[in-house]
């Protein structure tokens, strides 16, 4: 994770009130405190609870108001789920919320969770979401692709990661109105590495704003809308566009096999 991390079973202050008290008194409950890396400040918690009315554990989250809607909950929850899938072998994870909690529902859907059923429990009507493991893994691949080229906030791009998430034979295409630029990994990365490292392109960040993913067996496709901003030779710019990703599952892992994009 980039901005935050968690530590299991530890919390310095009862900032989340009744939820904190409830989970510490329940042996079927686990929780992790989420902190900002640079300043070691606790900002919220991730919970992992086995409830009697669900077949497996459910993930939950609670963050202090001043740190809400800043991406911390998404980043911490995604990293936690990845750990559970890859290191604990879990493929069946739930989440519960209420129909009125639109912020929670939006976050669960971003994580690749899908509405499963409605239950009447705990004096309220609960919406049960279940993790779509493949969609979650494709979300992670896509976010990592966008993140490779970020140098905002004095971050250094992780160039090696693109080799981990893409097939060696990946094809990357930029579409212009009347022409196309076609790249392999090396021809795509090198000019961008130079611009991001020599000061030509600074404060750059590109992020996904919309996604629609289709999975059929061991192949998948994703339409992403994106926004980007930064400084070229000190001059601020902002733009947006569309990307199409294609993925293939090989040796049990999803990889990016092609990317095509066009700026608007």
UniProtKB/TrEMBL annotation:
InterPro entries assigned: Acyl_CoA_acyltransferase (IPR016181), GNAT_dom (IPR000182), N-acetyltransferase (IPR051531), NTF2-like_dom_sf (IPR032710)
GO molecular function: acyltransferase activity, transferring groups other than amino-acyl groups
Keyword line: Transferase
Keyword Transferase annotated: yes
Domain N-acetyltransferase: 14-114
Family annotation (SUPFAM superfamilies): Acyl-CoA N-acyltransferases (Nat), NTF2-like
Name of this chain's protein: RimJ/RimL family protein N-acetyltransferase
Organism taxonomic ancestry: Bacteria, Pseudomonadati, Bacteroidota, Sphingobacteriia, Sphingobacteriales
